[in-house]
């Protein structure tokens, strides 16, 4: 039974009936149905927006401009530290970092850096909002912690002339690059302070579950005093979760949450038996310079309190009614951005997910048993049995799904096909005293690339030597083994080997010839034809982390603005269990003159019921609105060139008709933020949006200790739509005060609801 906020009790069958009315849209990507089914308050039936697009600092296909007027019209541009939406819409704050919800004595505290938003109706006038809290943006978090949380932090970082930093905790200090918490050499009082800081940071991560109620005007607000709010944090004693990025809503009224960049907080690599590799992750900070007493980010905060890295990097199933969280091992351990579900009665349950790293992969899980009823809560048990597959793209537009199982044959690595000439594979070159491969990852590179590890031939020879048979006969099962001190029967050994493959999924995928991709982030199913849309956020080949296949992502080798991502489309047989697909590029990022749609770094995706694609962009905070001279470090194909595209934004792109592929800007975010989690209410009247890490780079605008001006002028060379560059003077705030708008007040990540006035 479920309790509605007005006291009316709803039978579970009634709740499921309500959910099933929009189950098809929810299963396709978490965007629910509208009253008409063909139009929303946001988009007209012909795919055109019902609003005037928000201004951008560069030409875009929907702005009505032309090459002759681009330079004059965009000679100057003012960046606003606001969430800018079209005229006629209003923005209402639902929840901000540090806010407390619930009855006195039993309140929850809303976390930091909100990301995914899962709207789950619970009757006609109540709903759950599941909110992910991804990571700590250290500078604004430290500056605003006491105000937001109501308690002080004794923590300070100071840069030193030799490149080290001085960690100060109250009266205690230590100098260096990091603090070896729990190891010899770290003063006990400093290590204890680092653990305390890490604990507080992790408490601000995880998942918030808010109870919403419908307003008299038809909108939604948080039922502030409801006892039904829940909080699952990074230090939760039951099942801690952190690094929660995106996710989806299930047709049975729960949510899936992906743990993404866990490698920043806990150890990632494991050895051949599934034990942690010997290299420890230490507590440290990054981004310290002479202007600030605060860093940009923390590293190793999970390791600092003794968390086991193998417990993170999973997809979590969350029941908003009970607050129960379960990690789904069969979807693999990786940097999960989100999950897209294909749930059809009489067919296997299918889940798609992306490993968000340079050189990461796209994955597909197929359940062993079939769905009986789409809205059955027991469907979560279908994740218990099935097979995880990884993609292999061919340059001719075809592809196949390869099973990640012990019997799958190894494939000779081909770093020469990647944009950067290198990829990562399991390191099986050294043995521990117990005879088990020490583990970790090793780079396999071409001779032309900066060699970090082995050549492809050397890696194949090392594995063949370790296993005692020719490489051509080796399978994934040869790369993993049982722990030396555990005796397993045949069935137990098979389960263990599969577990280790899932623990180290990314390098195991490279070992069987999966295609390294360009940071696969969000995946969503089109509500009309069930094709899978994938946002590939970053084509760069300059990273030591990995690089994409240049045959599938040709711009990964070119010095071009199109390096900043694209949206691809995968088409399969309708039963969803097919192991073959066709792929194509739906929309390229980049400037119009370069064949792009006018945006950079596509990230979160969402479909409205009419089939229009909503795209959120994630331009790094350090690059947003940077000076761009179009040469050197700001040349096309370099990180700083992304400054041309301005701030993080939300776009609507029709997928059919004469406007297909043309981006229309609905919103731009506050300074140095990322917009996340776009989703719609079931009636299509309300758009929910998360504003993450405002002020991430420069912190609080007007902060008393920074000594920085509140605003600067940037000179940006922008290309008109005919390709001719012109100079734009761009006025840019340094740091953020959103949502308060008051100088000196720290910014707070928040969730908003957007409706027509």
Task: Report on this structure.
This protein is mainly β. It has 2 domains: 631 residues, no CATH class; 97 residues, no CATH class. 12% of the residues lie in helices and 30% in strands. It contains 9 helices and 41 strands. The strands form 11 sheets. The chain has a 9-stranded antiparallel β-sheet with strand order 22-23-24-25-26-32-31-30-29. Strands 7, 8, 13, 14 and 15 form a 5-stranded antiparallel β-sheet that branches. Strands 4-41-38-37 form a 4-stranded antiparallel β-sheet, with no helix packed on it. A hairpin with a 5-residue loop joins strand 9 and strand 10.
Summarize this structure briefly:
The chain is built from 9 helices and 41 strands. The protein has 757 residues and is mainly beta. The chain folds into 2 domains: 19-404 and 512-756, no CATH class; 415-511, no CATH class.
């Amino acid at each position: 039974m479920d309790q509605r906020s007005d006291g009316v009790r709803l039978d579970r069958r009634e709740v499921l009936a309500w959910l099933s009315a929009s189950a098809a849209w929810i299963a396709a990507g978490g965007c629910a149905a509208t009253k008409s089914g063909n139009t929303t308050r946001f988009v007209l039936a012909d795919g055109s927006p019902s609003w005037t697009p928000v201004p951008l600092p560069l030409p875009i296909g929907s702005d009505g401009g032309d090459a002759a007027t681009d330079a004059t019209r965009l000679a100057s541009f003012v960046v606003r530290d606001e969430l800018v939406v079209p005229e006629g819409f209003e923005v209402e704050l639902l929840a901000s970092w540090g806010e407390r919800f619930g009855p006195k004595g039993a309140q929850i505290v809303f976390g930091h850096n909100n990301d995914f938003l899962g709207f789950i109706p619970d009757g006609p006038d109540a709903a759950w909002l599941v909110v992910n809290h991804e990571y700590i943006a250290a500078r604004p978090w430290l500056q605003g912690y006491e105000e937001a949380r109501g308690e002080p932090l004794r923590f300070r970082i100071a840069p030193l002339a030799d490149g080290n930093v001085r960690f100060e905790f109250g009266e205690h200090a230590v100098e260096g690059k990091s603090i070896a918490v729990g190891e010899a050499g770290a003063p006990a009082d400093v290590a204890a302070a680092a653990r305390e800081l890490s604990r507080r940071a992790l408490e601000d991560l995880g998942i918030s579950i808010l109870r919403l109620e419908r307003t008299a005007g038809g909108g939604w607000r948080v039922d502030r005093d409801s006892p039904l709010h829940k909080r699952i944090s990074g230090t939760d004693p039951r099942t801690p979760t952190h690094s929660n990025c995106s996710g989806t809503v299930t047709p049975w009224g729960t949510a899936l949450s992906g743990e993404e960049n866990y490698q920043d907080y806990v150890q990632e690599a494991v050895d051949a038996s599934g034990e942690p590799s010997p290299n420890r992750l230490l507590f440290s900070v990054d981004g310290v310079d002479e202007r600030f007493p605060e860093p940009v980010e923390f590293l190793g905060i999970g390791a600092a309190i003794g968390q086991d890295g193998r417990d993170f990097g999973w997809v979590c199933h969350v029941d908003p009614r009970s607050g129960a969280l379960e990690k789904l091992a069969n979807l693999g351990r990786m940097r999960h951005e989100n999950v897209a579900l294909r749930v059809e009665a009489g067919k296997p349950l299918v889940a798609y997910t992306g490993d968000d790293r340079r050189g990461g992969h796209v994955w597909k899980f197929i359940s062993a048993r079939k769905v009986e009823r789409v809205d059955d809560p027991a469907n979560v048990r279908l994740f218990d049995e099935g097979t995880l597959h990884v993609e292999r793209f061919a340059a001719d537009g075809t592809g196949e799904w390869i099973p990640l199982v012990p019997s799958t044959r190894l494939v000779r690595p081909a770093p020469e096909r990647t944009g950067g000439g290198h990829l990562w594979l399991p390191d099986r070159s050294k043995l521990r005293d117990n005879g088990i491969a020490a583990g970790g990852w090793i780079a396999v590179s071409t001779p032309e690339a900066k060699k970090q590890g082995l050549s492809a031939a050397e890696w194949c020879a090392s594995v063949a030597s370790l296993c005692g048979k020719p490489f051509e006969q080796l399978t994934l099962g040869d790369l993993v083994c049982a722990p030396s001190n555990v005796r397993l029967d045949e069935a137990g050994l098979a389960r263990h080997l599969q577990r280790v493959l899932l623990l180290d999924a990314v390098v195991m995928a490279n070992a069987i010839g999966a295609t390294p991709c360009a940071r696969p982030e969000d995946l969503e199913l089109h509500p009309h034809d069930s094709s899978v849309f994938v946002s590939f956020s970053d084509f760069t080949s300059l990273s030591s982390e990995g690089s994409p296949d240049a045959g599938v992502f040709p711009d990964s080798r070119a010095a071009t603005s199109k390096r900043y991502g694209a949206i691809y489309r995968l088409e399969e047989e309708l039963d969803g269990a097919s192991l073959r697909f066709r792929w194509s590029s739906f929309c390229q990022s980049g400037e119009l003159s370069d064949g792009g749609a006018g945006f950079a770094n596509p990230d979160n995706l969402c479909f409205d019921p009419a089939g229009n694609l909503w795209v959120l962009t994630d331009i790094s905070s350090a690059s947003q609105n940077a000076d761009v001279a179009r040469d050197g470090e700001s040349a096309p194909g370099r990180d700083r060139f992304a400054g041309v595209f301005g701030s993080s934004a939300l776009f609507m792109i029709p997928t059919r008709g004469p406007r297909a592929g043309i981006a229309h800007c609905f919103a731009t975010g506050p300074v140095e933020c990322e917009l996340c989690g776009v989703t719609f209410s079931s009636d299509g009247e309300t758009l929910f949006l998360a504003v993450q890490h405002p002020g991430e780079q420069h912190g609080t605008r007007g902060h008393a200790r920074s000594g920085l001006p509140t605003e600067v002028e940037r000179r940006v060379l922008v290309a008109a739509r005919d390709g001719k560059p012109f100079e734009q003077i761009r006025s840019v705030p340094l740091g953020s005060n959103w949502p308060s708008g008051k100088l000196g007040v720290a910014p707070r990540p928040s969730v908003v609801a957007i409706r027509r006035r």
